[in-house]
Amino acid sequence: AKSEAERLYNQENVFAIIGSYNSSATKPASAVAERAKKLFLCGASSSAALTERGYKYFFRHAPTDAIESEEFTDYIAWLNKEKNAGIKTLGLFYENSEFGKHAADEAKKAAKEAGLEITADVPFNTGATNLSSEVQTLKAANPDAVFGAALGGDYSLWVRTMKQVNWLPKIAINYCTGYQNPAVQKELGADGNYFMGGMSFSPELAEKFMPEALVVQDKFYRPLANQPFDSDSVQEGVMLMILGQAIEKAGALDTEKVREILASETFVSPLSLSGEVAFEPGGQNIKALSVITQIENQKYNTIYPAKFKDSEVIYPMKPWDNR
To answer: What residues contact residue 154 under an 8 Å CB cut-off, 6+ apart?
Structure first.
């Protein structure tokens, strides 16, 4: 990521970079931008540490893992109060990367604040072909809830391995992961049902609260990608549109003028759940919003918070042998 950022800025002379998906790629690439005093706009990378570096040229749209961790524990508190869920223990399952480790760190902070006991802390190596040992560790600890941070194929393998060992927690809530990817969910089919995750976009959310996102999706994104927006890809689109607005306001491709506008103004953003984008010092979008969804039959049902809720939670998760 570092060398590619250097190539784009120094050889291709790009004005700005929009990316990356993984926090582990965004961290070194954005460091190149900061040293060169070039703009780096990030849609989806969620490591809270990225906007705690005091950078002036880095801007991020997505909620951080810290924000989502607090949302997850708030939801557990709501379940315990309203549904008598009895969730007291928590397991962490996360990739051994910038993203995964920081998600786990934020989960530990939020769990401590919420009075949840962490009974399983299980990292894994990305791209693993077998997660049996890690999932058996989770099963042995048998936490009431699990927070997951597994991307793409790792998420799919995790779910299928839980099925193989015939174990599920009462709830499993996922960060910015393979859970949000419709292609992964299509591959999992019914096995993906009843898992939960934080999201800033879903087709169901967009129909009610972000209709213009569906127009952009169908006109521009779907013909090229041959799939709908997901919660990550739409956020990269948001940052492209925000950059365009800032350039128009600056009246020129002047990095310093555009940076100042990005840092000081609030932008209308119909592709964002909040409808607006504004960045605090360090580059975090203070208007960032996400909801908790639960998937059933490849449909993302919004279950929290009440403002966006469209479905009742299915709790606890249905056991594998009762589906």
So the answer is: 95, 124, 126, 127, 128, 131, 178
